[in-house]
């Protein structure tokens, strides 16, 4: 696939590399666990790496590899690896980079299960972590310890939508020989490409925008070839969080429309965020492109558009009122996950981030009256009317 094609073209045309004897337009689904060797010697050569070819689908599968090549190409990475879930990718990468006693420097706010994983690493293997605003080089350098193994960030942060400068973090990390891992789930490669800002490894929950239809659980890690190959032959192979060929196939189907879907998600979310701001029952509205703060300036620099997610608080502060509001919605579904055709709403304090102890949750800015809305692909007036009637009923 030539470098000369634009994102919207690459997302569709990049399966030419796959040698299919029938010239199928859609990618073939290789739903197989293992691959047959013509001769015992061929098996020997494949295991030793002398001969190219597949061995067993936990190590690699043609349909899954096609998805990996596409994601690598879209993220501007040398290589990518698919996983059975976003957390499969997060945990494989974290395990690959720490040893007993390591420290991980994190953005102030991370996905709930990533927080759970950090605690597991802490309890079992003595790996420590700390959170930081990561807002300036000086601040980052103060937070780096001799035992810091890498920097782990999300931007926008889930679910508070705070923005971190990818370039600032990458520059501070480079000065200390550290790598930066970015969970890019909220943006998808269409809106933000962290490697182009100097970061080293990109992670995705492909369950979200990448597959986009709410029917796949999957994940990716993308980065330089040497690192990704090692990850494939150690953490992914031996822990085994692989993507199934069928999930890869569904994902390849969804991926073709990523730019078209993202454009609509972004356009509708920007419109809804503006209207929420003016509603008397709504407190704060956080959307990356709203306002003229330093954060919005950074967001505009590193994101193509504002994304499809909005976080907002209700003026009513109690959990019960928030639940009453959510229960009054008809079109918008109450569900975790995001990036689907359906608009989804969730309550981080009692759902995605409930595993985080209350004090730390507040420290991260996740209050009881905060909700996270994933704006879907429905007609924007229908989405707004649903929100409006539920807010008016408060
Ligand atoms: C959903 C999500 C994950 C986890 O992905 P799964 O596919 O559910 O395992 C990680 N990070 C972010 C930001 C997410 O939204």
From TrEMBL:
Keyword check for Heme: no
Keywords: Lyase, Pyridoxal phosphate
Entry EC no(s): 4.4.1.11, 4.4.1.2
CDD domains given in the database record: CGS_like (cd00614)
One of the record's GO molecular function terms: methionine gamma-lyase activity
Reaction catalyzed: L-homocysteine + H2O = 2-oxobutanoate + hydrogen sulfide + NH4(+) + H(+); L-methionine + H2O = methanethiol + 2-oxobutanoate + NH4(+)
A Pfam family that the UniProt record links to this protein: Cys_Met_Meta_PP
GO terms for biological process, alphabetical: methionine biosynthetic process; transsulfuration
Modified residues (N6-(pyridoxal phosphate)lysine): 208
One GO CC annotation: cytoplasm
Gene3D superfamilies referenced in this protein's UniProt entry, alphabetically: Aspartate Aminotransferase, domain 1, Type I PLP-dependent aspartate aminotransferase-like (Major domain)
Top-rank taxon, per record: Bacteria
Cofactors demanded by this protein: pyridoxal 5'-phosphate
Name of the protein in question: L-methionine gamma-lyase
Stated family: Belongs to the trans-sulfuration enzymes family. L-methionine gamma-lyase subfamily.
């Amino acid at each position: 696939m030539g470098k000369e094609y634009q994102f919207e073209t690459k997302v569709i045309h990049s399966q030419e590399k796959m040698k299919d004897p029938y010239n199928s337009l859609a990618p073939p689904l290789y739903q197989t666990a293992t691959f047959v060797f013509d001769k015992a010697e061929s098996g020997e050569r494949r295991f030793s790496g002398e001969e190219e070819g597949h061995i067993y689908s936990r190590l690699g599968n043609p349909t899954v590899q096609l998805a990996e090549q596409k994601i690598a190409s879209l993220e501007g990475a040398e290589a990518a690896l698919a996983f059975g879930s976003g957390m499969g990718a997060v945990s494989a990468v974290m395990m690959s980079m720490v040893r007993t006693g390591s420290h991980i420097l994190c953005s102030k706010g991370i996905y709930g299960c990533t927080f759970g994983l950090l605690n597991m690493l802490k309890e079992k293997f003595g790996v420590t972590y700390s959170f930081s605003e990561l807002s300036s080089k000086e601040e980052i350098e103060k937070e780096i310890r001799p035992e810091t193994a890498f920097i782990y960030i999300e931007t926008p942060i889930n679910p508070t939508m705070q923005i971190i400068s990818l370039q600032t973090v990458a520059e501070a990390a480079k000065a200390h020989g550290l790598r930066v891992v970015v969970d890019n789930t909220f943006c998808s490669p269409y809106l933000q490409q962290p490697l182009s800002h100097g970061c080293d490894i990109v992670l995705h929950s492909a369950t979200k925008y990448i597959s986009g239809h709410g029917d796949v659980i999957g994940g990716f890690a993308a980065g330089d070839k040497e690192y990704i190959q090692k990850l494939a032959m150690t953490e992914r192979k031996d822990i085994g969080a692989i993507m199934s060929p069928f999930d890869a196939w569904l994902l390849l189907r969804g991926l073709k429309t990523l730019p078209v879907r993202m454009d609509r998600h972004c356009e509708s979310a920007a419109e809804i965020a503006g209207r929420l701001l003016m509603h008397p029952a709504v407190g704060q509205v956080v959307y990356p492109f709203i306002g003229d703060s330093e954060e919005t300036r950074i967001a505009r620099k590193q994101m193509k558009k504002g994304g499809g997610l909005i976080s907002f608080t209700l003026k009513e502060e109690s959990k019960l009122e928030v639940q009453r509001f959510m229960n009054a919605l008809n079109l918008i579904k109450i569900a975790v996950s995001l990036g689907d055709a359906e608009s989804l709403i969730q309550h981080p304090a009692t759902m995605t981030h409930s595993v985080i102890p209350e004090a730390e949750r507040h420290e991260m800015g996740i209050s009881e009256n905060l909700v996270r809305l994933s704006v879907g692909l429905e007609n924007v007036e229908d989405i707004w009317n649903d929100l409006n009637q539920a807010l008016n009923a408060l």
